[in-house]
Each structure stands twice: as structure tokens, then as C-alpha cells.
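anyone seen this seq b4? input:
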Amino acid sequence: MGGGGGGAGLEPVANPLDIGETVGAGWEVFKNNAAAMIVGLLAVGVVGGFTLGICMGPMLIGYMRMALRAARGETVAIGDVFGGFDKFLPALGLFFLVAIGVFVGMMLLVIPGIIFAFLAYWSFWIMADSELSAIDCIKKSVELVREDIGGTLVFMIVSSLINAAGNFVPFGSLITGPIAIGMGASGFERLTRGRQL
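predicted toks r here
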């Protein structure tokens, strides 16, 4: 498994999934890059939906790369959301592997599907920041989750609640969605700092 994450070579972070730190970082990502994050999110939904999910994987990878660069203090542009197409086939494969895994798990009394989705939580972030294959991204995600099951669960729940909060006001998800993605980028960057993916 080759490739290297943007956090390789840096000192590891204590308590990388700290809720206060990552929510604050998510807000900073949004505040400093609002136009790119909002338009990027719209592009993911439109292109992914228009292509019946075929392009959803690459669009997600592009959006997550954008968020990771923003979380690292780098300049981002709206067009960055399309950057994931350089991994079209791996991203497509990962999207359908995760979707099928969750679907099959849901058919098996729901709980297995929830567990699979939880274990695969970091897989798209890993693909966005490394050269790993789709299957290896899922394996690495399982490895990261198992290192801190409780912390990852709380992080995932809080991120989901932030994302869902936007549904209560018109167009609110255009704000809460990017904040949740920024939180995810911060959590992933902190979690993988000092590691070689």
C-alpha cells in the first residue's frame, strides 16, 4: 500500500478527534472559503444526481480534497471540486463498494449496515489524501476507527447532527453541510498527522 497523506512527517496530535477543536476548525474552513465550499457542495449534488451516482465518488473526492487543503491553510478555488476525476475509477469503485456494503448490511437486520458504514467512515477521506486502492481505503478506515471506536462514534454523531441541523431552515444545509465537511477534514488531518497512509 503506497502513497502518503498530507500529515506525514508532522508530530501526532493528542486527542485528534476533539469535538471543540474540530468543530471550530470546521467553522474556520467554511468562514474562510464560504463561496468555494457552498458552490462545491451544490456541484457535488447536481453532478452526482444528474449522472445517477456515477460521478458521485469522484465529486466527493474532489470536495474532500478541497476541504483538506482549506483545513491545512491552503488556497482553494471552486474548480477544485472537480479534481477527483483523476481518480474516477477508484472513486467510482469505492462509492459502490461502500454503498453495496451498507445496503447488504441493512438487509441483514439493519445493524450490520450501520456497523459497516461506521467502519468505512474515513475511506473517502483516505482516498482523497493518498494513492490507496478502494479496498485498501476501506481497510485503512477500519484500522483508524478501531484505534478509537468511542471517539470516532462521538465525532460521527456530532458531525451528522451539525449536517442535519441545516434541514430545519431554508437552504440551511448549504451552511451546515460545508461546516460538517470542514469538521471532517480537520478530524482526518489531525488523526493522520505523523502517519504514512
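The chain is about 70% helix and 0% strand. The mean pLDDT is 93. kinda curious what u guys think
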